[in-house]
Amino acid sequence: MVAVITPLCDAGMGIPTVTAARILKGQLSGHSGEETQLEMDKFPYVSLSKTYNTDAQVADSAGTATAYLCGVKANEGTVGVSAAAVRSQCNTTFGNEVTSILKWAKDAGKSVGIVTTTRVNHATPSAAYAHCVDRDWFSDAEMPVEAVQAGCKDIAQQLFENIPNINVIMGGGRKYMFPKNTSDVEYPGEHKHMGTRKDGRNLVEEWKERVKDLRGHYVWNRKDLLALNPNNVDYLLGLFEPGDLPYSLERNTETDPSLTEMVDVAIRILRKNPQGFYLLVEGGRIDHGHHEGKAKQALHEAVEMDRAIGRAGLMTSPYDTLTVVTADHSHVFNFGGYTPRGNSITGLAPMVSDVDQKPFTAILYGNGPGYKIVNGVRENVSTIDYNQNNYQAQSAVPLRMETHGGEDVAVFSKGPMAHLLHGVKEQNYIPHVMAYAACIGQNTRHCVSAVSQATGPSAALPGVLAALLSLTPLLC
Ligand SMILES: *[C@@H]1O[C@H](CO)[C@@H](O)[C@H](O)[C@H]1NC(C)=O
Ligand SMILES: *[C@@H]1O[C@H](CO)[C@@H](O)[C@H](O)[C@H]1NC(C)=O
Ligand SMILES: *[C@@H]1O[C@H](CO)[C@@H](O)[C@H](O)[C@H]1NC(C)=O
Ligand SMILES: [Zn+2]
Q1: Which stretches of the chain score pLDDT less than 50?
Q2: What is the 372 CA–ligand 4 centroid distance (Å)?
Q3: What is the pLDDT of residue 413?
Q4: Which sequence positions are flagged as catalytic?
Q5: pLDDT at position 12
Q6: Which residues, including other chains, have CB under 8 Å from residue 98's CB and lie 6 or more apart?
Q7: Record's superkingdom (predicted)?
Q8: Cα–Cα distance, 65 to 69 (Å, whole number)
Q9: Is the dihedral of CA 32, 35, 41, 42 positive or negative?
Q10: What sections of 38-126 are H helices per DSSP?
Q11: What are phi and psi of 419, to 5 degrees?
């Protein structure tokens, strides 16, 4: 868990993060790194996505998730509502709700799932099922009383009520599902991990009751997850932490599954549906690592995300599965300094500054908590261990939390209709392509003709399995 001011963020994988993760991946297996191929590097199509929100040049994860899941750009801080909704103003919710590709897929008879390393009611996943003017309304305890009275619902409640029976839900966020003061199963008696709900509801018990005759299973630790036989599971709720999952470098391998393990189980459950499936996967803690200035954590998260993409690739076929990997937004993270080939990605540039005569790391942030002045001058990084997991890379401007970046992010795609994701596109174009490929949502005329002709590769389209792997940098 992060010990910093709660970042209300998710993904965040900009292009510098992709490149640095590629080098790290190679260096972890003993190579110089630059020549390594990430799994996403092997995708045949790449596009750039313009990430701005309707009211923000530099985006947050809520507005961007609404764009790439619901197909419309939205205001910062809002999920599953159009730009007519005003952040935190409950009464602007009603009539402005927009639906997501997850719902379009469910309505079309596909199985659907959400897998994230953050809370399952965090900004990115919530845009798939909730309509909320405030991304921070995790449970009713985080909401103003007036908003509850005016009929607005917290995001945890919406997870279970808006789209009945999402087949797979995995991530963190246990505490938002239990009544206030309920002790957590993994951290008994620890106050900060206790249930938060003021309405006294136990959403997990309610869910278990609802799916008890439908081959539904609730698990809260890795061992129980891996003990399941996915062939005998049609509904899975896995909540592995009271809040976000830990960074993969700090994961408790007894209790917390890796992102790759969660994706593996999710696909095994979802792919049993002959009509196909839709899966949203979020490597949400890339963003958190960056916000904390902890580049090494962020990059290891990105490498784990890439491993999950590789696993998903082994379990699906590009002949019937569209896979899209993208980020919600970037970060002000970069690396440079004329480092030689094979230089450790967390290492130093080969020269000292010709201004202050001090060494500097290749990785630097534009702003963030790594800004350090020691005795009135820039810290000499040779006097500290800049390779440790939680080292905060230097930044130009001091901020308690590093910010998102405003530049375009990459969209990698493979599978049916993947070629439509090319060129520079608005972020909200993405789900329309996925829906078009899967023959779900509003625009399905091409599917009818494909079926009636029943010839050529397009005849297979209605069975498309759409998987969105949202390799995200963190958005706050
Ligand atoms: C909506 O609520 C805001 C306060 O949050 C209030 O100022 C505004 O008048 C309300 N609008 C309507 C149409 O009720
Ligand atoms: C929760 O615990 C706190 C502190 O122990 C107590 O003040 C509060 O009344 C309790 N609330 C409920 C709903 O039990
Ligand atoms: C920085 O620290 C290293 C290691 O202690 C030292 O050799 C070097 O002289 C220092 N550079 C400056 C400019 O203080
Ligand atoms: Zn963020």
Answers
A1: 1-10, 451-476
A2: 22
A3: 97
A4: 61
A5: 79
A6: 66, 70, 71, 72, 74, 80, 81, 82, 131
A7: Eukaryota
A8: 6
A9: negative
A10: 61-70, 101-107, 123-126
A11: -65, -15
pTM: 0.92
Q: What is the pLDDT of residue 464?
A: 41
The answer on whether 329 is annotated among ligand-binding residues is yes
Residue 191 marked in a binding site = no
Mutational pocket test of ligand 2: of 140, 180, 198, the residue with most ligand atoms within 8 Å of the beta carbon = 180
Which amino acid residue places its CA nearest to atom 2 of ligand 2?
181
- As residues whose CB is below 5 A from the ion ligand 4, the structure lists 9, 287, 474-476
pLDDT at 164: 86
- Return the residue whose CA atom lies nearest to atom 11 of ligand 1: 91
From CA 33, how far away is CA 364, in angstroms rounded?
19
DSSP-derived letter for residue 132 is B
Q: Whose CA is nearest to atom 5 of ligand 3?
A: 383
Please tell me what DSSP assigns to residue 78: -
- Ligand index nearest the alpha carbon of residue 147: 1
How far apart CA 242 and CA 384 sit, in angstroms, is 34
The kind and range of the H/E element at 412 are strand 409-414
From CA 171, how far away is CA 282, in angstroms rounded? 9
Ligand 3 contacts (CB < 6 A) are 357-358, 380, 382-383
